[in-house]
């Protein structure tokens, strides 16, 4: 399932013997978990003090791009331009297709940071689609 990111809507679920598990409200497993409604619990993000730098979240993005020279460099430069660290990056093309796929794992601070990265990547010439990959 998706790992929740600060700022994202979250839901809690009382597990059997393991305490409360917290999921992103968009997690596909939430529907299955909450079939037992009385085990659901309201949860919210802890209020971090102003200026407190929280540990970064690792997020994987998948992009569909045009298969052309320089698109990988443009994508990595755009990510670096918004002060975002790349943990891993893979690119591959399909023979006979004029498109490629780039999977990139980045470190972000919160949901707004992730949204800014995705918006910036969508603005790169040759990027067709960007989405957060399921874990």
Describe this structure in words.
With 135 residues, the protein is an alpha+beta fold. It is 21% helix and 35% strand. The protein is built from 3 helices and 7 strands. The protein has helices at residues 28-33, 71-81, 111-122; strands at residues 10-14, 20-24, 40-41, 57-66, 85-93, 99-108, 127-132. A 4-stranded antiparallel sheet has the order 5-6-4-7, covered by helices on one side. Strands 2-1-3 form a 3-stranded antiparallel sheet. Strand 5 (85-93) and strand 6 (99-108) form a beta hairpin. The longest helix has 12 residues, at 111-122. It is elongated and about 55 Å long. The protein starts with 9 loop residues before the first strand and ends with a strand.
Question: How would you concisely characterize the structure shown here?
Answer:
The chain is of the alpha+beta class.
Brief descriptors of the model:
about 35% strand; about 140 residues; 3 helices; elongated; three-stranded antiparallel sheet; alpha+beta; single chain
Biggest β-sheet: strands ordered side by side in the sheet: 5-6-4-7
Morphology call: elongated
Intertermini distance: 5 Å
Oligomerization category of the chains in this entry: single chain
H/E element order: EEHEEHEEHE
Residue fraction in strands: 25-35%
Low-confidence stretches: none
Overall average residue pLDDT: 84
Characterize the biggest β-sheet: 4 strands, antiparallel
SS element count, helices: 3
**Rg measurement, Å:** 18 Å
Number of beta-strand segments: 7
Structural class: alpha+beta
What percent of the residues sit in helical stretches (DSSP H or I)? 10-25%
């Amino acid at each position: 399932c998706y790992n929740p990111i600060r700022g994202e809507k979250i839901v809690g679920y009382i597990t059997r013997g393991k305490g409360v598990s917290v999921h992103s409200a968009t997690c596909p497993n939430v529907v299955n978990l909450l079939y037992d409604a009385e085990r659901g619990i309201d949860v919210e993000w802890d209020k971090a003090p102003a200026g407190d730098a929280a540990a970064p979240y690792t997020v994987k993005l998948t992009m569909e791009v045009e298969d052309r020279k320089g698109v990988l460099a443009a994508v990595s430069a755009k990510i670096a331009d918004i002060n975002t660290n790349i943990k891993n990056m893979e690119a591959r093309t399909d023979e006979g297709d004029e498109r490629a796929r780039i999977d990139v794992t980045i470190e972000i601070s919160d949901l707004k940071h992730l949204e800014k990265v995705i918006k910036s990547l969508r603005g790169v010439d040759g990027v067709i689609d960007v989405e957060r990959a399921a874990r």
